[in-house]
Design a protein that fits this description.
- The protein has 659 residues and is an alpha/beta fold.
- Helices cover 47% and strands 10% of the residues.
- A hairpin with a 2-residue loop joins β14 and β15.
- The chain starts with a helix and ends with a helix.
Length: 659
């Protein structure tokens, strides 16, 4: 018993030391994160929130530290009465080094994740595996200080190793008076109970959970509160839930339809239009990588030309700027626009072989269209090559198809795929060869970090403003490259539009374009940019011949989002055709629109913009796409959450009803 008592007391001291050191490391990491993420002037009157952020954060840290060192604690208890306890002492410095390396490394990663995505680590992190992993890693290597971060984590792990080994060396001289066996037993029981309580994070009936991290109305305080490991745990839970499509009662779906749509089904119908019936036009929808308004507001034709050859089209055709992308990620926006899905992993989930009657391309299929998807990258990304044909696409083309048609595209291919100009050249080739009306959905790739326009591209003037330098995130120092890639992508789109307009296709081709999401490396901190931060433009060219035969009203200040794109296209290309829409509208309707734009993070309405997670605070419209910096009350604070519920209910009903 003497040997056990000695080893047990040594064990407790070593375990407490490494745990408290780990908590201290995480606290320091939070302090650094806090100093970099918050704006001091915004903390006025929030001192209690700051204290709460660090207190709750310390509880999260203790939970993670105690869980991380639990194997050390338990193995020490088991081996304390045996000769193998010396092995435990030999292994402890190594174990400690690994834990501290991970704590430091993930804390750094969490900060840079915030810089890029405006959040602590969330479900989007699994794009590392779901996307082109090599491309994601190449992207990270270009944008982040990987080596510096790695060696910092190694240094912290090494310091932990040295300190723990020295402490164990000193323990050879430690001695304690003998205790009665009952006292030792009681001490072991109490130690285990206390360890479990700290690792659980709470004494009450509920353990420390995600909602505890919501400590303030000021979002950055909520972001710095949890540590990286808590955030990763929540992200993993969210990711697993994405693949599940729980059954939903038909009445619940109908009730939600009535509540949000004012009718029991999401079925709508285009008007009869004899001209469209006899002259069905080609339709091209280009979803442009990273075409975010948060960079487009920097456009200046003379000093910072971000539109390039797209400038004339923006001046001549329909453009809506108070417009939101559906989400902050590419695949998320694609499946939301095409399939009304709030589950980004649907294309490679258990529902990947379920044909959805709500697919946005089916009205075109019924009207006799050829429906194709062109992706500048590899079509096996997110299993699209297999998934899209199930949802009504006749063909899926990717970088391999484009390189085969234009061998010179190989020379300018980059991390994510071929340069945008070749993607548009391929679309033009399909239109020229088309024998029947064709719908082409394009996803471009060039305007993606790492930002590199093709080497032979001659950029027009660009200039990084002080505003841009202030809000730039992980790519600080690469402003010029980012602006040139942004300009190049728009230039490629603009040249395609000019090419179509100058050909015999001009009278029979609709062209629409929007961004897949905001430019994610730009900070969302400026309150006067509360809407701009998540906005994308919506561009639309409709031939005059069709406009002359179709009623429309153009009001540039109208508000919308991705959900409105296909209903608008239907109205100018399909006659007497039914379609599915979860509230999306023809944004050129003569009857007006509801003026709502949905994004999974922030939404907009006729009064202004608001955070879906804190919908009561609305930032009113000021000039153009800018907002007031002082929030007011949102007249429809429940709308975004109810709309998301509608998406979720409807998708579940579609999947469950068609398996």
């Amino acid at each position: 018993m003497v040997s056990f008592q000695h080893n047990y007391r040594l064990l407790i001291r070593i375990v407490l030391f490494v745990n408290f050191a780990a908590i201290a490391l995480l606290a320091v990491s939070r302090g650094i994160f806090f100093s970099l993420a918050v704006e001091p002037e915004r903390l006025t009157g929030l001192s209690s929130d700051v204290i709460r952020a660090f207190w709750v954060g310390a509880r999260f840290d203790a939970k993670i530290a105690f869980i991380g060192f639990a194997p050390l604690f338990l193995s020490g208890l088991i081996l304390a009465k045996t000769r193998f306890f010396t092995w435990w002492k030999s292994a402890t410095p190594w174990y400690s080094a690994v834990i501290f390396f991970l704590l430091c490394g993930f804390s750094i990663a969490n900060y840079y994740y915030f810089v890029t995505y405006g959040s602590y680590i969330d479900v989007f992190v699994f794009g590392l595996f779901d996307d082109d992993t090599k491309a994601v890693l190449d992207n990270a290597w270009e944008d982040y200080p990987i080596l510096r971060s790695f060696f910092t984590a190694v240094a912290v792990g090494g310091l932990s190793f040295i300190t723990t080994r020295k402490l164990l060396g000193r323990s050879l001289h430690w001695s304690w008076p003998k205790r009665h066996w009952a006292m030792t037993t009681l001490s072991v029981v109490v130690a285990i109970v206390l360890y479990v309580i700290v690792a659980r994070g709470s004494i009450g009936s509920l353990p420390l959970k995600r909602y505890h991290a919501n400590v303030s109305q000021y979002k950055p305080l909520n972001i710095v509160t949890p540590n990286a490991f808590m955030a990763l745990s929540w992200a993993n839970g969210d990711y697993k839930k994405q693949a599940k499509f729980a059954p939903i009662a038909e009445q619940a779906v109908t009730d939600q339809m009535m509540k949000m749509l004012g009718q029991p089904t999401p079925e709508y119908h285009t008007e009869k239009n004899p001209y469209l019936a006899d002259n069905p036009p080609h339709v091209v929808m280009a979803l442009m990588e990273g075409l975010g308004t948060n960079v487009l507001i920097e456009d200046d034709a003379q000093q910072n030309d971000l539109l390039g050859s797209l400038r004339d089209a923006f001046a001549e055709d329909f453009v809506f700027e108070r417009f939101m992308a559906g989400t902050t990620a590419t695949i998320d926006s694609i499946v939301m626009m095409l399939f009304h899905s709030d589950i980004p992993t649907i294309s490679h989930s258990g529902a990947q072989k379920v044909a959805l009657p709500s697919s946005a391309v089916l009205p075109y299929k019924r009207a006799g269209y050829e429906v194709v998807f062109i992706y500048g990258g590899n079509s096996m990304w997110r299993n699209l090559a297999n998934y899209l044909p199930i949802q009504g696409f006749d063909a899926v083309y990717d970088e391999n198809s484009i390189k085969a048609a234009f061998p010179e595209a190989k020379e300018h291919a980059d991390t994510w795929g071929v340069a945008d100009e070749y993607t548009f050249n391929f679309a033009r080739k399909l239109l020229d060869e088309a024998t029947k009306p064709t719908l082409i959905y394009i996803m471009t790739v060039t305007n993606h970090s790492p930002y590199r326009p093709p080497s032979d591209y001659q950029p027009k003037p660009t200039l990084a403003s002080e505003r841009l330098k202030d809000v730039i995130g992980s790519i600080a120092g690469q402003e010029t490259e980012m602006l040139e890639a942004y300009q190049y992508a728009n230039d490629a789109l603009g040249n395609f539009i000019l090419d179509i307009k100058g050909s015999n296709l001009a009278k029979k081709t609709l062209i629409a374009a929007s961004g897949d999401h905001r430019v994610r490396s730009i900070s969302t901190k400026n309150l006067d940019e509360f809407a701009v931060s998540y906005a994308v433009p919506f561009y639309l060219y409709v031939p005059d011949e069709i406009l002359a035969q179709t009623d429309y009203q153009y009001q540039p200040e109208r508000i919308g989002s991705h959900r409105d794109i296909f209903p608008t296209l239907y109205s100018f290309s399909l006659s007497d055709q039914s379609y599915i829409s979860l509230g999306g509208e023809n944004i050129l309707s003569t009857d007006g629109v509801s003026n709502r734009g949905y994004n999974k993070v922030r939404s907009i309405n006729q009064w202004g913009a608001y955070e879906n997670g804190n919908p009561g605070r609305l930032y009113s419209w000021e000039d153009g796409v800018m907002t007031e910096s002082t929030p007011t009350e949102n007249p429809e604070a429940d709308w975004a959450s109810e709309y998301h519920k509608l998406q979720n209910y409807y998708l579940r009903s579609q999947v469950a009803g068609n398996k």
